[in-house]
Design goal:
By secondary structure, this protein is mainly alpha-helical. The protein is 69% helix and 4% strand. The protein folds into two domains: 121 residues, AhpD-like, CATH 1.20.1290.10; 71 residues, no CATH class. It has twelve helices and two strands; from the N terminus they run E-E-H-H-H-H-H-H-H-H-H-H-H-H. A hairpin with a 2-residue loop joins strand 1 and strand 2. Keywords: Oxidoreductase, Peroxidase.
């Protein structure tokens, strides 16, 4: 497939391996063999420790979608009275404030922020560190985020739409975004990686019994 790449200083770094690291390391996938393979390939193509570590950190924070899904349902079922006292909380939330200032706050986070602003701010400290670190450009962050949310082990539609919109605003082309989606599809080969060796083993056993 074509390489999706982005300029950084005097070198051009292929993003495809970092996208592959993202798909494999996502907390919804945790493909150990794939992570090792694509980290090795990313290093070979010029990615550095900080870039790969940032991708890994992004793979951990996507677990916030558990709250994106569950918190609105909790509020609906428990009633708005259950969050009234929390909404009036004066607990400082500097990390959340930083995310909002960077334009990276997602309104889908409002329900669990209302339920537990202090915990949300602790969680967002990691997210703010990734978005504000300067390791990746805004465009690169959005392309990687698309890979996490559109991956076949997650398929989180609200996040995919949000990050596609943001990627376009950040200067990504339709072709670049489509390349990320194509990389996601390519990882369907994991079905063969898992099942074909097992099939071969079972067929060998049958042959041995013949």
């Amino acid at each position: 497939m074509d390489r999706c790449s982005c300029a950084r200083g005097n070198r051009t770094k292929p993003l495809v391996e970092l996208v592959s690291v993202a798909i494999c390391t996502a907390c919804t996938n945790l493909d150990r063999a794939g992570v090792r393979k694509h980290i090795r390939a990313a290093l070979a193509t010029g990615a550095n420790r900080d870039e790969i570590l940032a991708v890994i950190r992004m793979g951990t924070i996507m677990s916030i979608h558990s709250c994106s899904l569950g918190a609105p349902i909790l509020i609906e079922e428990a009633g708005t009275e259950a969050v009234a006292s929390k909404a009036k909380s004066t607990v400082p939330t500097p990390a959340c404030d930083r995310m909002k200032a960077m334009g990276q706050w997602n309104q889908a986070w409002d329900p669990f922020f209302a339920l537990d602003p202090q915990w949300t701010d602790q969680f967002m400290t990691t997210a703010a560190g990734i978005y504000g670190s300067g390791v990746f450009s805004s465009k690169e962050i959005e392309l990687l985020s698309i890979a996490f949310d559109a991956s076949f082990t997650h398929m989180y539609a609200p996040g995919t739409r949000r990050h596609i919109k943001s990627a376009l605003v950040a200067g990504a082309s339709v072709a670049e975004i489509m390349e990320v989606l194509k990389v996601c599809v390519a990882f369907g080969v994991a079905a063969c990686n898992l099942a074909v060796p097992i099939l071969a083993e079972e067929l060998a056993k049958l042959d041995g019994q013949g």
